[in-house]
Structures are given as C-alpha cells and as structure tokens.
Specification:
The chain is an all-alpha fold. It contains 10 helices and no strands. The longest helix has 26 residues.
Length: 204
C-alpha cells in the first residue's frame, strides 16, 4: 500500500523518489529491482522508505500513477488541439508517447510491459483506482456526435480500445526500432479498423 505520508511529502522529495524509481525500473524489471538502489539514488534513509511504502510493488504503482497523471495532462491539451476528434487526438498522443519513451529510456517501457504481473498490477491498481475517474472526465472534451452510438458505456469501451491499441503500438514501435513515421503509419491503419470496421454493411 502507498501510505498517505508519501502523498504528504514536499514535491521536491516526492519527485526524487519517483525519479529514482524510474531509473531503477529502467535498468531492471520489477522482480529484479532493489529498494536499496532507490533509497540510495533518492538520498533518503532506508527506514523512511517503509514510512511511505509497504513493498517495492507500491513504488512501482506510485511511479505509474505519476506517469499516468502526466499523460492525462497531455491528453487534456491534445484533445483541444485535435478539436475533440478522438482519432486525431490518438495520433497526436502516439507521437508524444513515442518521443517520451525514446528520449527518457525505452528500457523502462520494455520493463513495464515485459512481465504479465506488471500488466496485471497496472490494470488493477492504477486502472481501477486512478485511470477511470480521470478518463471519464476526459471524455467530456471529446466530440462523439458522428458516432453510431452515444451510450456512455459503449463510448467508454471504444476509448479504452483505442488507448489499448495506442499503448501496444508505442511498445512495438520502440522495441522494434521503428521510426516515428513508420510507427505512426501502422497505428493509423489500426485506428482505421475501429473507425470504419472490417465488414461491409451487407456482410455485417
């Protein structure tokens, strides 16, 4: 569990811990990471670590929450740039995510998605407790007037599908060494399947 004492820290100290976590998880996957390295890099006493977190998994969740919060901030900016068009916004977000992981350390991206337990942890802890409320608010900025359905649960499912495809497209593009242009072309093609479908109306 991430303890309230961590959230109450001064921003500078909290930032040191999170950046130290990113550095550690950029080097090794979760099961090989060491608390001692995070403590040493962030320059906090080892005893303080357990005042903020119960386990190493909690630091990973805190790091993912931080990344997700920054992503939400960017999305709120990009949705206006895309004039509410979710497909244009998704392309802009792909470009941002690609450059972010390419510049920071693409090994962090690999280590986040490499292990099934990481993916499960992210979807359960970050997803249910952190993502949904933010993205539900984010939906208010999107224009769904051209969609076949306006039911909220169906729209939310479509948005989740787009973001899942986006994350996978970024992962594949980075790990396979694709250029931004190549990765964007592949992602655009995947978006077209959602946008236009794969069956003609007679077959459907």
């Amino acid at each position: 569990m991430i303890k309230q004492t961590f959230y109450n820290l001064q921003e500078e100290k909290k930032r040191r811990i999170l950046e130290a976590a990113k550095l550690e998880f950029s080097k090794v996957p979760l099961h090989d990471a060491k608390i001692s390295n995070i403590v040493s890099t962030s320059k906090i006493p080892r005893g303080s670590f357990y005042q903020y977190f119960d386990t190493l998994n909690d630091v990973f969740i805190a790091m993912m929450q931080d990344i997700e919060q920054k992503k939400i901030t960017i999305l709120n900016q990009l949705v206006h740039k895309a004039t509410g068009n979710i497909f244009k916004m998704a392309i802009l977000m792909f470009e941002h995510e690609y450059r972010y992981f390419k510049k920071m350390n693409h090994q962090l991206l690999l280590n986040i998605f490499k292990l099934s337990e990481m993916e499960e942890m992210y979807s359960q802890d970050v997803g249910t407790k952190f993502q949904d409320t933010n993205k539900m608010e984010f939906l208010n900025h999107l224009d769904f007037s051209g969609f076949n359905t306006l039911k909220q649960e169906e729209i939310f499912l479509i948005v989740q599908m787009i973001f899942n495809i986006l994350s996978e497209a970024v992962r594949i593009s980075i790990t396979k060494g694709y250029s931004l242009e190549m990765g964007e072309r592949l992602f655009s093609k995947q978006l077209e399947y959602i946008k236009y479908g794969v069956l003609n109306r007679k077959e459907a």
